[in-house]
Amino acid sequence: MEKWKLISSKYPYKSKFGNLRLDRVQLPNGNIIEEYNVMEYTDWVNCVAVTREGKLLIEKQYRHGSGDFSYEVPAGTPEDGEDPTDTMIRELREETGYSSPHPPVLLGCYHTNPARNNNRMWIYLFTDCERTDGVELDDTEEIEVGEWTFDEAERAIEDGRITHQTTVVAIERARRKLGI
Question: pLDDT tens across 6-38, in order?
């Protein structure tokens, strides 16, 4: 098996939220794809934050791409070369006001959609979280934070209230790590 050969790339669209790259590629069988689109996005991090009482922090916020509200675990993107672990510690505090006295545990790093996207997602687990600060939301954020049991989160996945794939993966990875 061989990788595809990149012949050329062009960018019909670039923004601070992502770039559309059109690649001309040659497949190992010699066929040429004239325009294979790749979305270039910033890597991001998310976490399962568990309180001292064993509850998950779940955020509700509007997501314009789906045109609906979404239940998600805390997440964010690195700023100016920031380490993913430091990003998640900061994002957890900014979005929820919670922090943990323990270092976060890395549960994995995954490509979000390797067929068409170039970015990765790091998943962390924070335990014994408690509210230590006020929230510091970005201008584009309006977030409601709730505390859910793992069973409530599982029911929300099963009944379709939690549909964000990275949140589903994060919760399942945390359950496995915690033996729940």
Answer: 999 999 999 999 999 999 999 999 999 999 999
- Give the tokens for residue 38: 């790749």
pTM for the full predicted model: 0.92
Q: Residue 166: its pLDDT value, please?
A: 95
Label residues 22-48 b or e (16+ Cβ within 10 Å = b). ebebeeeeeeeeeebebeebebbbbbb
For 26, residues 6+ apart whose C-beta sits below 8 A from its C-beta are 4, 5, 7, 32, 33
8 CB-contact burial (10 Å; exposed 0-12 / middle 13-18 / buried 19+): exposed
**Cα-based angle 80, 173, 58 (whole degrees, multiple of 5):** 70
Q: Is the dihedral of CA 101, 138, 136, 59 positive or negative?
A: negative
